[in-house]
Description:
32% helix, alpha/beta, 9 helices, binds 2-amino-2-deoxy-6-O-phosphono-alpha-D-glucopyranose
Amino acid sequence: MPLEVIVVENYEIMSDAAASILILEMSQATVLEGRKFNLGLAAGSSPLGLYLRIAQRQGEFDPTNIRSWNLDEYAGLPENHPESYAFQMEQNLFGKLNPRFAKIFIPEGDKIDAARLEGELKEKPQTAELDGRYSGKAIVIKTFSGYTGRIKRTILVPYLESIVSAGGIDWQIAGVGRKGHIGFHESGVPLEYGIMLVKLSDETIADAVKDGHFLSAEEAPKYAVSLGAEGLMRYSKNILVLASGDRKTEAIAKALLGPMTSDSPISAMQKRIGSSSKVIYVVDEIAAAEILGRERKLTEKGIKLRDIRRSASLYS
Ligand code: GLP
């Protein structure tokens, strides 16, 4: 199955199409086959319409057979902080399901004391290496002792292990950042990380302030926990990427037409070209503006473009 891109008119149809794809899979697994289904979830505005539809159509699948994992989380925000991803997912999806998913896994960013982390990084720089070409960095922790070691031992490693021991994610939902980042795997951070503690980039912090999530850059979190591109490639069987609007146009073009590069972490999905696992991008026509008309180049790369803007059904 090639990497596939479905182009639709707008955000609402993007959400309808994503819901049709995902709910069919969830219902097939949890109702028809009566088996467990592992779902990877992303925060942000791109999947909100999808989550609304999942809640509206909850009779079509069995939530008690579903376990979910959030992709990323800010470090240092309490779980019930309105801007924490745990809280947002509770508001937008988990709290609307009755019964709820059998198990909900969240990276425990709330357990990180950001000031203590920053202190240790300053005082004992040898405990961690900052990896990345731009201001967003992976904090590569080299020890199992000290405060950073404790974060690795008690938060990062167990989270990845919870996914591995559950047999991996069946379907991962992902949005894409303006610079092609996925989760909090920032642009310029090598693609090799399964999970990481992240020092957020200046752009990500500025965007969070600009979008009204925090009053100022000083107030916004500086660190986060995130699955990395390699973690997604290795542990997710299938991936559904959602993108809409002009803030995503360049990111989508680079992700699909450009080379696989850490500058655009989401470009790592190109690894799936020709594989039996699916990667489906559902994008609106504005986000797709720079790939529409480039079918030949996409086909040469093994990427299938389905422009369904004028067709009646996703399956026609
Ligand atoms: C943020 C988040 C990601 C999210 C992305 C896109 O940086 N860490 O999880 O997917 O931005 O967000 P949005 O869908 O709101 O555009």
